[in-house]
Amino acid sequence: MDTQPDRRTAAMFITLAAVWGSSFLLIKVALEGVSPAQLVLGRLACGALTLVVTMLVTRRRWPRGLVVWGHLLVVALVLCVVPFLLFAWAGQYLPSGLSSIFNASTPIMTAIAAGALLPGERLDARQRLGIGVGALGVIVIVGPWSYLGDAALDGSLPAQIACLGATACYGLGITWMRRFVQGRGLDSVTVAASQVSLAAVVMVLVAPLLGGIGPVDLTGPVIASTVVLGALGTGLAYVWNTRVIERWGAQRSSTVTYLTPVVGVLLGVLVLDEHLHWNEPVGGLLVVLGILVAQRVLGRARTPLVGEAPAAAGAVAAAPELTAQASTEGDLDQVRA
To answer: 176 and 118 in contact (C-beta within 8 Å)?
Structure first.
């Protein structure tokens, strides 16, 4: 038996966990020299360039039809522009490790959005239990008992709410993707290139309104962080993840969700000397437990969820860059509503 393909897949999987786990560290470093709007603009520009080159090299065709492009524009706004801005803004006030923990709530948000918006995808009792456990985990992460003093509300709490707003955008965007884009014959790289390119165009237009033309301090670490975040995290990682899903399947590949917060927290502690409170990793574990329960990974033998929204989200929770392919890959066709 040839083990080389599986070894290459494992290497891509580990690389994905490292790239997406380091995203919030890169955001933190880049914000030392640019504003949130400038960072998102640079990130999307690098990601779009990388994916457009991939489209040209692989000779893929761009989508056709105004309706398809209209839905892709919605996806670009909800899965890229808005959440990227929210996470970048929150990165000014939160440790990078804490942001990565909040990002792990994406599957919970996706389950809620899919249950509410997709016809025939009502949540069963186990999914509701998983969402409840995940919601409890979010409450523990936020630690409302620590905000009894008004001064504490000035920065940290709004930033944490912004992170939750970003993951809510991911949940809504993934649901929109599955309902209006999936099934149109577009492969994951094409969808990714289209949405990221549209998002980059949108940011070119709105960045001046958000302070994106202000002064910058383009040091080596700032430039490197922005380029890596865009070219790798918002570009090549799409291609790598496509290969992992093709070879391992959606469920196995989605376990990257559980590695990226670990990578994010460790990098924050080791590189930026960040310190987490006890409730933040404990809450993160509760969120992961909620995801496992909602996906029926724990307990009885797993049966396909209605629409498999949480499983698809598992592949995207690690970082926003994974949104397109996780919801368009053929591995999910067997559990499509």
So the answer is: no
pLDDT band at 89 (very low <50, low <70, confident <90, very high): very high
The whole-number pLDDT of residue 69 equals: 95
**DSSP conformational letter for 232:** I
Other CB atoms closer than 10 Å to residue 148's CB: what's the count?
8
Residue 217 has pLDDT above 80, yes or no: yes
Q: What is the dihedral of CA 258, 259, 262, 268, to 10 degrees?
A: -130
**pLDDT digits over 151-196, tens only?**
545 568 889 999 999 999 998 988 888 888 888 888 888 999 999 9
Phi, psi (degrees; rounded to nearest 5) at 212: -80, 0
Q: What are phi and psi of 18, to 5 degrees?
A: -70, -45
Residue type at position 120:
G
pTM for this model (two decimals): 0.81
Q: What is the DSSP string of 158-198?
A: HHHHHHHHHHHHHHHHHHHHHHHTTTSS--HHHHHHHHHHH
| Residue 178: per-residue pLDDT | 83
Q: Do residues 13 and 244 lie in contact, with contact meaning Cβ atoms separated by under 8 Å?
A: yes
Backbone angles phi, psi at 262, to 5 degrees: -65, -45
Closest CA to 130 of 309, 318, 256, 263: 309
Is the model's pLDDT at 332 over the cut of 60?
no
Q: Which residue intervals of the chain are DSSP H helices?
A: 4-21, 23-30, 36-58, 66-76, 82-90, 96-103, 106-117, 125-142, 156-180, 188-206, 220-227, 237-248, 250-253, 256-272, 279-294, 309-316, 323-326
Mean pLDDT for the chain?
Answer: 79
Q: Which of 15, 6, 5, 45 is nearest to 237 (CA)?
A: 15
- Comparing C-alpha atoms, which of 280, 198, 234, 300 is closest to residue 23? 234
Separation CA 321–CA 122 (nearest Å): 27
Please report where in the chains the tokens 């985990």 appear, as a residue.
Answer: 137
Q: Is 143 left (phi over 0), alpha (psi -120 to 50) or beta?
A: left
CA atoms of 117 and 205, how far apart (whole Å)? 30
- Reading the block at residue 249, the tokens are 């399947």
